[in-house]
Amino acid sequence: MNKQISKIAIFALLLLAALIAATTYWQAWAAPSLAAKQDNSIQRVAQFEIKRGLIYASDGRTVLAANVKKKEGGQTLFFRRYPTGPLVSHVVGYSTQGRSRAGLERSQNAYLTASNANLGTIWSKLGEQLKGETITGNNLILNIKTGAQRIAQAALKGSCGAAVALNPKTGAVYVMASSPSYNPNLIESNKGYSSILKAPSACPGSSSALLNRATQGLYPPGSTFKTVTAAAALDDHVFSPSSSFYDPGYCIEYGQKVSNALNPDQTAESYGHVSFLQAYQHSINAVFCNIGKALGAKRVIDKAKQFGFYSRPPIELPSDEVAASGEFDFARHGLFDDASRMDPGRLAFGQDKLLVTPLQMALVAAGVANGGTIMTPHLVKEVRAANGSLVTRVKPQAWKKAMTPKTAAVLNQFMQAVVTGGTGTSAAIPGIKVAGKTGTAETGQNHVYDAWFIFFAPADNPQVAGAVLLEHQLNGFGGSVAAPIAKQIMQAILPGASKH
Amino acid sequence: MTSARNRELFYLCVVGLLTALGFASVYIARQAEVSWGSLGYAVFFFALYVAAHVMTRIATPNADPYLLPMAGLLTAVGVTEIYRLGPSDAFKQGIWIIVGLALFALALFGLRRDYRVLESYKYVFGVGAIVLLFLPRLPAIGETVNGARLWVHAGPFQFQPGELAKVFLIVFLAAYLREKREVLAQGRLKDMGPLLVIWGGCMLVLVSSNDLGSGLLYFGIFLAMIYVATARLSFVLVGIALFVVGGIGAYEKIGHVRERVTIWLHPWTNTAVYCPLTGGKALRQDCQSYQLVKSLYSIGNGGFGGAGLGKGTFTTTNGHQLIPEINSDFIYSAIAQELGLIGAAALLLVVMLFVMRGMKIALQADDGFSKLLAAGLTFGFALQTFIIVGGVLRIIPLTGITLPFVAYGGSSVVANFLLLAGLLLVSHRANSA
User: What is the pTM of this model?
Assistant: First the structure.
């Protein structure tokens, strides 16, 4: 019998060895992915013993997320407090016990809890652990400029919408506003949470205040998309800056007239003979419809991809809080890029089934401003240890090569013309060359539009680029409602811009 | 062979020291909740083990010196963790350890001359096992806990007779297989009769009471012991084939089984699925697989070095339990969080050493009954550990069963001390020859 006993002994030991292997798997190999799970309440609660790092605005003084110390059951716990309330709530997010985390509180949790793999952090954390001291996280310093952010939130208040402003040369995000906003201090309590969810919304049928409309909201871009179409036409040499067009007041697609009258941005019914610049400046649908037909949907969509459409902009927010832009299949509830299913004429002036985020449109403007190169958008400027020493500084990085510098220079002129004598004159700032493009997208309801303005300034040395979107505006056009907000934001960011 | 007992005493002292350190760290970490009195536990357990040691000196002086200290270590780790999770449960567990050690002493003393008298009572054990398994189904004393009818209550005490039935069944199988092994090896089916009746009865009871973990355990013990007795691998293969067929059948017919398998394969879902607990829709990790997933988070949170005894996270900051059944079915995930990979692996290595010593005793024993008994008891111990820890670690579907010596549960403690007594008796006899 001894032979058999030895065999079942080996079998039993192998079973037990498998347990050690599996434990190693969960504790070493799979531990990071377990820690990242949204329903991991163990790790979340455990981290309330950590003094989370603070989150500062770009001035390094304004605290956006602070800690409140509480003694409970012999333990010292740290709960979050957001001194600026609803000001930057979609960006900063929240860290709660009962309702998990969102925003940078979630995506930057490793830094904030000092569990990142930075050597200095590991050492200081180990020291704190061995001495039984409270572990202190790393502080985040954001690029957000509270002054401009406040102006943007105030301007959006009362409507649903979003505004994004960033530095086109570095990708530093100065403003990311979304309206309606919410007070993150109310998230933890059941009462506060339901008050956020049930708050009456200015935009019918639209989702709650928790949605970050700047990165998650999807809207038809309207005429702002003509920027992408124009870039495709110029880069593919199908048209040149000196191309001229004839506008009869409509364009014929699939044997039917697509009339300019549908374009609320246009003042005249028909412009007759126009240059490429004039067609863009006055946002003439009939001309862009014909450009789209000449290019074909595939060329336009390929260009859009070079602008970053169909991929999530690599901003520091959690990936499920950032949406990709593109042609949207409502039945499958996802993007599609099969050009044969698109209407090239309507695509060219930003209707068809296009849905985009305000962040993506801000990046379109930033690409033109930065000579064709779109920089990776960054909310975080730097990470510092509790003692002030630098842990990491975010370096500017190119994300997309959207177009040639030559094309960008042409579009720069086009966009300036929109503000000097086109549909976007209300964004003009005396003494500063402002460039922009309006958009007024049909929503399916009569006289109700999604109003857009994308912009950058100063046009000859851009310091700021961005996008403003207002949802469901009754008779509200990009040039009349969105452009003035863009102007206020630019004035707040640009030094020396007069405030009137 | 007094040197063996002296070694045993020495190792028990080491275990006593470790126990004291364990309670001290819980005390330091949780001063607000526990008092210096907690160190009394360490002294108390040390005294208990010394008492057990005195009994081995009297009854089994030549027995293996490592088994008792290792069982003591596992029990101490368990009690320390149970104490940390809820001091009142540790007190109850302490009482059960006293009961277990008393029965352990009784078994050693009563059977010290020749435990092989058990052989002649084999049918008593066989029928006894079935009776024990049937007890919870009697309306007057049976009780249903978590959907499985496994408990018997008498006054303030609850008892899970299935644990004891395991030891009875192993004694029966060892005696019966010793007697019939030659004819069985030749394949005389007639002799399989009583074996299949007793074993089939057990299985029927287990499956009908939804105790799938124990069913798997008994089945595994049965196959292992038949293999040791007959050396016929074909029996094992036929058994495994039957198990696969039965498993597929159970999956098709029994909703409870299908649910366990679904949880095992897909504990996380991205979209809301039907949730039988509420009747509505929910993510599976918020519904059926809640326990398993939270337990994995607990293990993951331990990392390499662990949070430290008393420093793990098992409740929200306002005291709400995050993992149900943490001190019984999921004690391993509590230990893995607080002691980390180092501690959990060390615990499993102790289990492996225990198995090695047990199997060595089976090898050294010189008669068939002793060999089968020691091998059966040891294999049962190993398989039970695998079934519960493997379930917690998602190697196999999770079934509720206790972690021997470690988990909270009176019947388990008593049964495992009897298992230990059996191994010591066989070892003493083999070393005395």
Answer: 0.77
Q: Is B287 on the interface with A (CB under 8 A)?
A: no
Mean pLDDT, chain A cut into blocks of 10 residues (500 residues total): 93 97 92 84 83 94 93 78 95 88 92 77 71 83 96 93 97 96 91 82 71 94 96 95 90 77 65 93 92 95 97 94 94 90 92 94 97 97 92 94 96 96 93 94 84 96 96 86 96 76
User: Which stretches of A22-62 are assigned E, i.e. beta strand?
Assistant: 55-56
Partners of residue A31 in chain B, C-beta under 8 Å = 300-301, 303
Q: Other CB atoms closer than 10 Å to residue B414's CB: what's the count?
A: 23
- Are A42 and B313 an interchain contact pair (Cβ–Cβ within 8 Å)? yes
pLDDT of A237 reads 93
Final residue in a domain of this structure, among A96, A129, A144:
A144
Under an 8 A CB cutoff, do B317 and A75 touch? Answer: yes
Per CB-CB distance under 8 Å, the chain B contacts of A97 are: 316-317
Quick one: A136 and A163 in the same domain?
no
- Residue where the block lists tokens 């009572």: B121
Chain B interface test: which of A7, A10, A19 (most B C-beta within 10 Å) = A19
Residues of B in contact with A74 (CB under 8 A): 30-33
Token readout for A434 is: 């402002």
A239 and A205 belong to one structural domain? yes
Residue A320 and residue A270 share a domain: yes
* Residue count of chain A: 500
B-chain CB neighbours of A189 within 8 Å are: none
Q: Do A42 and B297 touch (CB under 8 A)?
A: yes
Domain locations in chain B?
2-267+298-432
Say whether both A235 and A298 belong to one domain. Answer: yes
Of A118, A144, A170, the residue that ends a domain is A144
> Is residue B237 within 8 angstroms of chain A, CB to CB?
no
* ipTM, interface predicted TM-score of the complex: 0.93
pLDDT at A28: 87
Q: Are residues A233 and A316 in the same domain?
A: yes
CA atoms of A333 and B213, how far apart (whole Å): 43
B55 touches A at CB < 8 Å: no
- Residues of B in Cβ contact (< 8 Å) with A48: 317
Query: From B346, which residue of chain A is nearest by alpha-carbon distance?
Result: A20
Which whole-number Å values give the CA distances from B97 to A157, A244, B92, B94, B410, in the listed order? 67, 95, 9, 5, 8
Domain membership of residue A97 as a residue range: 41-144
Residues A140 and A153 in one domain: no
**For all residues of chain B together, what is the average pLDDT?**
87
Residue A181 shares a structural domain with residue A120: no
pLDDT of residue B146: 58
Q: B393 touching A, CB under 8 A?
A: yes
The CATH number that applies at residue A328 is: 3.40.710.10
Q: How many domains does chain A have?
A: 2
User: Which CATH number belongs to the domain containing residue A49 in this structure?
Assistant: 3.90.1310.10
d(CA A383, CA A153): 26
Same domain, A128 and A267: no
Strand-pairing partners, residue A77, are A70
Order of strands across the sheet that contains A161-166: A173-179, A161-166, A464-474, A448-457, A435-442
